[in-house]
Design a protein that fits this description.
The chain contains 22 helices and eight strands. By secondary structure, the chain is an alpha/beta fold. It starts with a helix and ends with a strand.
Length: about 500
């Protein structure tokens, strides 16, 4: 079992794991920068210093931070329309977006609001993740097929590429297919199989020894990033909401990773501390020319199985990437088809439609939420953050739909009228309860005693207490005595507050 002390102890396993993850992260960071519409070197910048500075704050010893596909897609959507894709203004806006994400996450962690990591319902997460994975894969299809990117949205470009086989490049297709086979097939052989590394080395070798004239990474500046906060703060207003959405939605993946590993190893983890560490990583990404970053499930898994034992394995990864920056030019001849295939191999496992189908068998309302989020995410691309917001709105509507009605049983016992509501007596349902009970009283003019049994209520909020008092007053004005019984512990305060000083108060029994 990993102890808290063990998380701080640096050992050989952390070095091996950190170097192993860096071998995967370096090419992935180039590809994920491309998804975000950024120059490839920004991916390397986002994979170096952010990991070093986040390490002291992390809660999970295995969580690996850096550029990830989902956050990159969200970044593309947030920056759409801010500046021409790939321009200097676009790069600066991406750094400013990382600053917003970082400030939001640090603030949530310091305020101990890590609970917000659990506020997205499972149907919303399932629908959004599946749709986002489809969009990410689709964005890489033209490159994997060797087709020049046409204009239009992600799905339109993918459809155009698939529909014009005459434009396909056999070399690009072969390299992409081999890469996917190495990455996905290699995992079946062994969790530590270096599929990404073999694909990159093979691609560089082929590009250098042949007359390959397809798309390659191109020029990569060699050197360390410039540290600066000279950002376009005038554009801040248009990035605050997308940044907050990325801070929350992008945290779902690292939170899931940390929870999974903590459960498997019987160790504790803190969502508050993870918020802080992820926030610090984004703050450093902002000042070092990067873009929003998050936690990677595949790299975190590799980190754990490679022997990581402390939080410093992530710092090792960042240090290796940092040391690589002065010689980054060795990747300039890497075919982009291989980078596209690396992305596709990473996100294809996330295209899980099974849960959406299962929702239809288990709960139609939740199925509507999951499917609605899925469709909305695809329809709003590249502004996929709108898909998340629509999904959350649907989830809230379903919740209100289920909480709004309040059911109750009414029983007549001689001159006693007994009413037992069940559900939540809150401001959305209390009024209907009042209307229904007054109607029942009118139908029993000879009743002398009204008994309101609250033992079946899940909660009574302030407005519910006000309505109960008004209901008692109306019943007594009609000549009935009123007893309130079965008051649950959680409802005693609002019930007693609103019935105290009532004059000739109703009898209240717990």
């Amino acid at each position: 079992m990993t102890t808290l002390r063990g998380r701080w102890n640096f050992g050989p396993g952390d070095v091996v794991a950190g170097v192993s993850v860096a071998a995967v992260l370096i090419p992935q960071s180039l590809a994920y920068a491309e998804i975000a519409g950024l120059p490839p070197e920004t991916g390397l910048f986002a994979a170096a210093l952010p990991l070093l500075f986040a390490a002291p704050f992390v809660s999970s010893p295995w969580l690996q931070t850096g550029p990830v596909a989902l956050t990159s897609l969200l970044t593309l959507g947030a920056l759409a329309g801010q500046a021409p894709v790939g321009s200097a203004e676009y790069v600066e806006a991406a750094a400013l977006l990382a600053l917003v994400v970082g400030v939001t996450r640090v603030a949530l962690g310091v305020a101990r609001l890590g609970v917000v990591a659990y506020l997205m319902s499972e149907p919303v997460l399932a629908g959004f993740t599946a749709a986002a994975a489809i969009l990410i894969s689709a964005s890489q299809l033209p490159t994997a097929l060797g087709v020049p990117r046409p204009d239009g949205g992600v799905l339109r470009r993918a459809g155009h590429a698939i529909g014009h086989p005459g434009d396909w490049s056999s070399e690009a297709i072969v390299m992409a297919a081999v890469t996917v086979a190495l990455v996905l097939g290699g995992r079946l052989l062994h969790r530590m199989f270096p599929g990404v590394l073999l694909a990159v080395v093979g691609g560089l070798t082929y590009s250098a020894t042949s007359d390959y004239d397809g798309s390659t990474v191109g020029r990569l500046p060699e050197g360390f990033p410039d540290l600066s906060l000279d950002l376009p703060f005038g554009e801040l207003g248009g990035l605050v909401v997308p940044g907050i959405v990325i801070a929350l939605v992008g945290f779902a993946e690292p939170a899931s990773i940390a929870r999974t590993f903590a459960a498997a190893t019987r160790t504790r983890w803190s969502s508050n501390r993870e918020f802080v560490s992820q926030g610090v990583a984004n703050l450093v990404a902002a000042v070092s020319g990067g873009f929003p970053v998050g936690g990677s499930f595949s790299r975190s898994s590799l980190n754990r199985f490679a022997g990581a034992r402390s939080r410093w394995s992530g710092a090792v990864t960042g240090a290796v990437v940092l040391a690589f920056l002065p010689v980054a030019g060795v990747l300039e001849q890497l075919p982009t088809a291989i980078l596209a295939a690396i992305v596709i191999a990473a996100v294809v496992p996330l295209i899980r439609l099974g849960p959406l189908v299962r929702f239809w068998r288990e709960s139609v309302p939740q199925a509507l939420v999951g499917t609605g989020t899925f469709v909305a995410t695809l329809a709003t691309s590249p502004h996929v953050e709108y898909g998340v917001l629509i999904g959350i709105g649907l989830a809230v509507c379903v919740h209100l739909y289920r909480e709004l009605p309040i059911h109750y049983d009414i029983r007549r016992e001689g001159t006693t009228l007994r009413i037992r509501p069940s559900g939540v007596v809150w401001f959305g349902s209390a009024h209907q309860l009042e209307v229904d009970v007054i109607g029942d009283i009118a139908e029993h003019p000879d009743a002398e005693l009204l008994v309101i049994d609250l033992s079946g209520t899940g909660r009574v909020d302030y407005s519910g207490g006000v309505v109960l008092r008004r209901l008692v007053e109306e019943a007594e004005s009609a000549g009935l005595r009123v007893r309130i019984v079965g008051v649950p512990a959680h409802a005693r305060r609002p019930v007693r507050i609103h019935l105290a000083g009532h004059g000739d108060p109703a009898e209240v029994e717990e």
